[in-house]
Amino acid sequence: MIKAVIFDLDGVIVSTDQLHYEAWKHVADQEDIYFDEKINHRLRGVSRMDSLNIMLEKADKTYSESEKEKLAKTKNDYYVDLLKQLSPNDMLPHVYDVLLNLKEQGIKIAIGSSSRNAKTILKYLGISCLFDAIADGTDIENSKPAPDVFLRAAEKLGVSYSSCAVIEDATVGIEAAKKAGMLAIAVFDAKKSEQADHKLDDIRDLLSIV
Ligand code: B16
Ligand code: MG
């Protein structure tokens, strides 16, 4: 029986893809590195430093660890500035109603995000107080496809791993959910994953699964 649903943030609750793209493109242009939407697509669900390493695959030179830290900071400063434009209107369709409906049914809800900016994003969306637990990039060492962020969310909720469902837009997130022993529900790009237990065209269909 499912007692809790752990929501991925970027791509499930809000679409920040374009903002990540603009911020990475800013750094890539500054360094004269080729970067496009297709490369950006590979960064979905992946931590900031892992994303940077993917972006640097097209670089002509090798970057030291301190240079990488600097580039990651430049990207994040730019991204955090872009996040200021977010408002409750940016929540993806039907998400808010689904969150309220789950709570009414007594099902716990949590965030399981690779982002170190998750709490800032939730604040701009005006939904921080809805969640029973938030596990994000600041809680973990290994990001998706490692299961850590979902295990941490379940621990914060006080719910057993096998009683949790995860809803994800990234194939690495579905992999992470299965490694955590959880029910894995895919939306958008994650529907490509062969490991997904359910694939949804509409997030409202989640309510008939849990
Ligand atoms: P930050 P999620 C992920 O969030 C994003 O999908 C991914 O593109 C990003 O690189 C990662 O967060 C780290 O974000 O730089 O803000 O710490 O999908 O796991 O909610
Ligand atoms: Mg995501």
Automatic annotation (TrEMBL):
The record marks 113, 144 as: Important for catalytic activity and assists the phosphoryl transfer reaction to Asp8 by balancing charge and orienting the reacting groups. GO terms for biological process: carbohydrate metabolic process. Its cofactor is Mg(2+). Pfam families: Hydrolase (PF00702). Its EC number is 5.4.2.6. Binds 2 magnesium ions per subunit. The keyword Magnesium applies. Substrate binds at residues 8-10, 24, 43-48, 51, 75, 113-117, 144. The keyword tRNA-binding does not apply. GO terms for molecular function: beta-phosphoglucomutase activity; magnesium ion binding; sugar-phosphatase activity. InterPro entries: B-phosphoglucomutase_hydrolase (IPR010976), Beta-PGM (IPR010972), HAD-like_sf (IPR036412), HAD-like_SPP (IPR051806), HAD-SF_hydro_IA (IPR006439), HAD_sf (IPR023214), PGP-like_dom2 (IPR023198). The active site is at 8 (nucleophile), 10 (proton donor/acceptor). Mg(2+) binds at residues 8, 10, 168-169. Keywords: Isomerase, Magnesium, Metal-binding. NCBIfam families: bPGM, HAD-SF-IA-v3, PGMB-YQAB-SF. Belongs to the HAD-like hydrolase superfamily. CbbY/CbbZ/Gph/YieH family. This is Beta-phosphoglucomutase. It comes from Peloplasma aerotolerans. The lineage of its organism: Bacteria, Bacillati, Mycoplasmatota, Mollicutes, Acholeplasmatales.
